[in-house]
Amino acid sequence: MSDHPVHGNTVPANVPPLIVMGVSGSGKSTIGTALAAALGIEFIDGDDLHPRANKAKMAAGHPLNDEDRAPWLEIIAERIGAELADGRPIVVACSSLKRKYRDQLTAYAPSTVFVHLDGARGIISERQSHRVHEYMPNTLLDSQFSTLEPLQDDERKVIVDLTMKPDAIVSFVLDRLSVIDAATP
Ligand SMILES: Nc1ncnc2c1ncn2[C@@H]1O[C@H](COP(=O)(O)OP(=O)(O)O)[C@@H](O)[C@H]1O
Ligand SMILES: O=C(O)[C@H](O)[C@@H](O)[C@H](O)[C@H](O)COP(=O)(O)O
Q: According to CATH, what is the number of the domain 16-53+60-176?
């Protein structure tokens, strides 16, 4: 496997699909965009793939349940699988809060690596107060945290301190990716 330098980091030639995960406001869209740009690969925001009914439900202040999320996760899973089958790595932003959601997301692409933007409710709440979102009210942050299941030992993963600056997070993830296959799980 030949590596090549990107922004001073060494990036593996065979980049796996990456899912940037975490609660609402943790930085998935910001970091996912930056990571994909650094790698020169496509970025997809899971927010854009929610069925209209899911967006309406969240906008009305109600958290999604498993049944709401299942078809949305399937759309994302199939997209990742199709891109991988065509040899195109991809970065996806998707909350991926529960283990069973993550298993559904990786069903067609087991090499997928989750990048969890991990941090305290306080800083995320503070960041949310400064942003405008298409449909997600800040009042759903508590339910996001109560739904979140930490990544488990057998999941392919990079866990990131979300208080770092975006550039530092991207560098950290690229460094981890260059060794993750050897270190799996
Ligand atoms: N590492 C970071 N440092 C400082 N601010 C950040 C960082 N990551 C994201 N933000 C800011 O936090 C807010 C939420 O980020 P966003 O990417 O929309 O999160 P998500 O997609 O997980 O909801 C945005 O205003 C964004 O600019
Ligand atoms: O599974 C969910 O409950 C939703 O996907 C949620 O996690 C997501 O956060 C919203 O789509 C809002 O979008 P932001 O994550 O960008 O706030």
A: 3.40.50.300
